[in-house]
Amino acid sequence: MRDTRESRLLLVLLIAIAFALITVDIRGGQDSPVDGARQAAATVFGPIENGVSSAVDPVGNAVAAVRDSGDRHDRIAQLEHDNVALKAKLGSDDRNRSRLKQLDKMIKVAGEGQYGIKGAEVIAIGAAQGFSWTVTLDVGANDGVKRDMTVLNGDGLVGRVTTVGPNTATVLLANDPDFTVGTRMESSDELGFASGQGDRPLRVELLNGKAKIKKGDRLVTFGSQADKPFVPGVPVGVVSRVDPSGGGLTRTIYVKPFVSFTRLDIVGVVVEAPSSDPRDTVLPPKPKPTPTPTVTVTVTPSESAPIDDQQQ
Fold first, then answer.
1. Which residues contact 257 (CB under 8 A, 6 or more apart)?
2. CA-based Rg of the chain, rounded to a whole angstrom?
3. pLDDT tens digit string along 13-27?
């Protein structure tokens, strides 16, 4: 538009009209006569304004990003929670695999010894009787469990049942000081009595004071009359120390149990004894000794080395 007198008059007129509309709008308040026109303009131009504002206003974009970050944080927190749950599930699967391994090992022992067993889970340690080495099982009289039954796992002798309830049973562990079991040495058949010593090796008194025993020899249960409280052939442990023979009627040896009494989970109660003594058949194969490597050194004479009867 050219800068003429008419254009200047038109500009002044438009400015005057704008001020007049502003004055009328302010005085009218909510009943302003131009409110409808303003709302119509907002309806038409509002979306366009928001789009342009979002495109050209970096501060607005930053505020929106901060506002939306709360939602993203919630989603990340949920993902982290799901990740933890997944790890817990994997851990549970690992534990289940470990328990299945224990169960398979115990079933193998029961099969080799022809023991009829009732599988059980250790659900508590240390019964109400005091500070004795005991555990509580989740099986009881309703499952055919009775007092003075042998308890074993995939490694060997765990203990004997001392108290039975309808659905639970208490087991006195083989390392308890009040625990005693008849034993028989592998191969030599030397008999003795093993007693618990808590977290120390079992103490075994052999009936033959001149018995030839060495470290690494193994023992199994000798068995009791009518197979109670002990069935025969259950692995007990391996000799860790032999006291010097003092010429007495008995000889003392110390035995490391096959069973770890602080890590008990799946066990079996022998509800049916074998028809015959399995003797040493339940013992695992003896570990093969590790061969000592032999190093052979070959010396190669150098060219400057003197030959026989010659001087350099």
1. 156, 157, 174, 175, 201, 202, 236, 237
2. 44
3. 766 666 666 655 555
